[in-house]
Design brief:
Strand order of the largest sheet: 10-11-8-7-6-9-12
Structural class: alpha+beta
Oligomer: single chain
Number of strands: 12
Distance between the termini: 36 Å
């Protein structure tokens, strides 16, 4: 049996983006597959499920498609017992689905061939794969990627990489490149990304070259490190993060733990306070005298001492051996 590092490696849009920006952070998959089904954990995932249902049920042809798209969002949340009023960004996402539904419906009406959602496409030769939100073949070949977050501009290098990557997979599957590559941002509406054949070729060349190189080089950058799986133990990252504007991580020895009557915890880490920590975020082995690291946090004050930081729903805390 082959060891893990010799097994087939498959690369997605996000992992090739990491491969090109910080090789050390790139972790390929062993097979091209959709992620395992699980309950929607945020407003964006509910919106994607609602979009899929809306298209597959033909509700985008409804007289008021925005109402039906919003209704699907509500139905999915209700079926899973989700209180939208308590979920961050849920109510504004719900409202945007209603207001943007007709724009999206008009785009879909221009598709000539069968419209597919959550379509898994692969490039066997280069071991690349992706799951496209919306695709349609034919002469008016179409790709749509739904974006619900703030950092989803078509000018973003990461978004351009993703859409060029998807255009390549479409071309492999359908024999021709898509005529329309669209980022549909619920905040700003649809924006078309121009993907030239030469751009696809250049990206493939870069990926092939990077795949042949050792993945030991770390190039710390805020947007690459933010959700990196190796962040907690990547020393180049910890040397760089304090100089970022703004930094979003701290490390040090715990000297004090305070628990409030509201059920949240505050830690004094290396002379700095981190507040707003929920029970689910606090590992059992965190105690005074232990060395800990916390990432995806926000500085509450600037230029005053001691520094104070606030945790959020995406904060991660880990106890580690002293560095």
């Amino acid at each position: 049996m082959k060891p893990a590092y010799e097994l087939a490696q498959w690369w997605s849009s996000s992992t090739t983006w990491r491969l090109l920006r910080c090789p050390s952070s790139a972790v390929p998959s062993y097979e091209p597959a959709k992620p395992p089904a699980k309950g929607p954990g945020n407003a964006g995932s509910i919106a994607h499920l609602a979009l899929q249902q809306w298209i597959e049920n033909g509700e985008w042809r409804h007289e008021d498609p925005g109402i039906r798209l919003q209704g699907g969002f509500d139905e999915i949340a209700a079926a899973r017992g989700i209180d939208l009023a308590r979920m961050p960004q849920a109510l504004i996402t719900r409202a945007r689905l209603k207001s943007r539904g007709r724009e999206l419906s008009v785009i879909l009406a221009g598709a000539e061939s069968g419209i597919r959602t959550e379509l898994l496409l692969t490039d066997e030769a280069n071991r690349l794969f992706g799951i496209l939100d919306v695709t349609a073949g034919g002469a008016e070949g179409l790709i749509i990627d739904l974006k619900t977050g703030r950092d989803a501009s078509v000018e973003s290098p990461a978004v351009k990489h993703q859409m060029t990557f998807y255009a390549h997979l479409f071309q492999v599957a359908y024999g021709v490149p898509p005529k329309h590559v669209i980022v549909f941002n619920l905040r700003q509406g649809p924006a078309e990304v121009k993907v030239a054949p030469s751009t696809i070729t250049d990206l493939l060349d870069q990926i092939r070259t990077a795949q042949l190189m050792k993945r030991t080089l770390a190039r710390p950058e805020a947007d690459v490190c933010r959700y990196c799986m190796k962040r907690m133990t990547c020393e180049p990252h910890w040397k760089a993060v304090t100089a970022w504007d703004p930094p979003d991580a701290i490390e040090g020895t715990v000297s004090r733990i305070e628990r409030s009557s509201s059920g949240v915890t505050a830690l004094r880490i290396g002379g700095q306070w981190l507040t707003g920590i929920t029970d689910s975020q606090l590992p059992d082995d965190v105690m005074p005298g232990r060395f800990v690291r916390a990432v995806r946090i926000r500085r509450r004050n600037d230029g005053t001492t001691p520094e104070e930081w606030a945790a959020s729903s995406i904060t991660e805390i880990r106890s580690l051996p002293s560095s």
